[in-house]
Design brief:
alpha/beta; TIM Barrel; two-stranded antiparallel ribbon; binds flavin mononucleotide
């Protein structure tokens, strides 16, 4: 049996193995987007449409991916995005990705819909960030923030691009429902993935531990998921950000920003950073591709807050493109989830290593030995990509 680094040469190899390991219903939950999945396809498609312009005859013998964000130096500008219900992918999935990020010295964002609790993640990876979905009950919001602060977490990420549940037809067709309740067809298909089924039978349905204190004592994992769904999503507006800014003393990041007016308002409200994201194509199918939203946001922000990016990254060269357009950090969702599904912790580490090695190669190939020096001069921009205004309206 070849070693993991020979078996999985690319994120696509991990993707193929994830598909083999996971029952279709779980694979589709990870893989899918909203409606026709136009946005899902365009996120990667548009990233790939950017071409790089190399500078040769540059000394690239020493190359660095180190970046500083919120006063901390990370080994690479590639972090792990928040993903809910990772316990369905692999037992203890949140913890595994938190450990991978901690070990690799890259940022990890614990999902607001995680299975692991804030406290257990903070104990294993004190440098983790925590994502929050607005809850209907203000007492729950208050308590979650207090718990994050008490656990010593530095950075709160509030996701604003889920005002309503989206229509994920792929999930509906393959039988994904919240709370998870497999139909006979789903059970039958799952039997073709015996390793996953064995783990599920051993460990049971994963519990959304963060919400246990707010639900009736002795609640089942299934009913707890239903309780969570009764709280999230909650309607919200800018008062949410004002309120969080007032209560949260650490770094405040808003995830799901796609418009320059919104980034200007974030600056006014004292937000420390934004993640330019369309939720990996899982929310608004007619959303602009994240990479197309990035230039105008960077130009509006004028370095007054940290601009980060996600959606569609499958190669290290995708990271090089996003950094060249002004992102400081990039997050990956599915790429890390594929690694986790394919081979647990070694698989997730492999996903990060692949991306880091590919980014390193891209830096060497284009003659930019330090990620901090990436910029538009390393991109060949078509006319429609030349100015932020055009880039944000043309495809
Ligand atoms: C399985 C899965 C679950 C997700 N859950 C969350 C979540 O709980 N909170 C959140 O803010 N974003 C969530 N996202 C979106 C990711 O944080 C990120 O924006 C997206 O995955 C980036 O796109 P990519 O998968 O193409 O890298 C989820 C994405 C996936 C694939």
């Amino acid at each position: 049996m070849p070693g993991i680094s020979q078996r999985f040469l690319s994120v696509e190899d991990l993707h193929a193995e994830a598909k083999r390991y996971l029952p279709r219903v779980i694979f589709d939950y990870v893989e899918g987007g909203a409606d026709d999945e136009i946005c899902l396809d365009e996120n990667s498609g548009r990233l790939r449409s950017f071409k790089m312009r190399p500078n040769y005859l540059v000394d690239i013998s020493r190359r660095s991916q180190q970046v500083e964000v919120f006063g901390r130096t990370y080994a690479s500008p590639i972090g792990i995005a928040p993903m809910g219900m990772l316990g369905m992918v692999r037992h203890n999935g949140d913890m595994t990705l938190a450990e991978v990020a901690h070990q690799s010295n890259i940022p990890f964002i614990l999902s607001g819909a995680s299975n692991a609790s804030i406290e257990e993640i903070a104990a294993a990876a004190p440098d983790a960030w925590a994502q929050y979905y607005p809850c209907k009950d203000p007492a729950i919001e208050h308590d979650l923030l207090e718990r994050m602060a008490k656990a010593g977490l530095s950075t709160l990420v509030v996701t604003v691009d889920v005002p309503l549940h989206s229509k994920r037809e792929r999930n509906m067709r393959s039988g994904w429902v919240r709370p998870y309740k497999p139909t006979p067809a789903v059970i039958f298909e799952s039997l073709r993935h015996p390793s996953w089924v064995a783990s599920y039978l051993r460990n049971g349905l994963p519990v959304m531990k963060n919400f246990l204190p707010y639900a009736p004592t002795g609640i089942s994992a299934r009913d707890l998921t239903a309780f969570y769904a009764s709280q999230v999503p909650a309607p919200h507006g800018w008062p949410l950000i004002q309120n969080l800014r007032q209560k949260w003393k650490g770094n405040l990041v808003v995830k799901g920003i796609l418009g320059s007016e919104d980034v200007l308002r974030c600056i006014d409200e004292g937000v420390d950073g934004v993640i330019v994201s369309n939720h990996g194509g899982r929310q608004l199918d007619r959303s602009i591709a994240s990479i197309d939203a990035l230039p105008s946001i960077v130009s509006a922000a004028k370095e007054k807050l940290v601009i980060m990016f996600d959606s569609g990254i499958r190669r290290g060269s995708d990271v090089a493109v996003a950094l060249s357009l002004g992102a400081r950090l990039c997050f990956v969702g599915r790429a890390a989830a594929y690694g986790l599904a394919a081979h647990g912790k070694p698989g997730a580490l492999r996903a990060i290593d692949i991306l880091r090695q590919e980014l390193d190669l891209a830096l060497g190939q284009i003659g930019c030995p330090d990620v901090r020096n990436l910029g538009p001069r390393f991109l060949w921009l078509r006319r429609s990509q030349e100015t932020p205004d055009l880039a944000s309206t043309h495809y």
